Amino acid sequence: MPTAPAGTLYRGREGMWSWVAHRVTGVLIFFFLLVHVLDTALVRVSPEAYDAVIGLYKTPVVGLGEVGLVAAVAFHAFNGIRVALVDFWSQGARYQRVMLWVVLGLFVVTMAGFLPRHLMNVFGGH
Amino acid sequence: MSAQTTIPTPRSPYARRKTTRGNFELYSWVFMRASGVLLLVLVFGHLFVNLMVGDGIKAIDFAFVGGKWASPFWQTWDLLMLWLAMIHGTNGVRTVINDYAERDVTRGVLKGLLLLAFTFTVVLGTLVIFTFDPCPADAPAELLASFCTA
Question: How far is B102 from chain A (nearest CA, A)?
Answer without folding.
Answer: 10
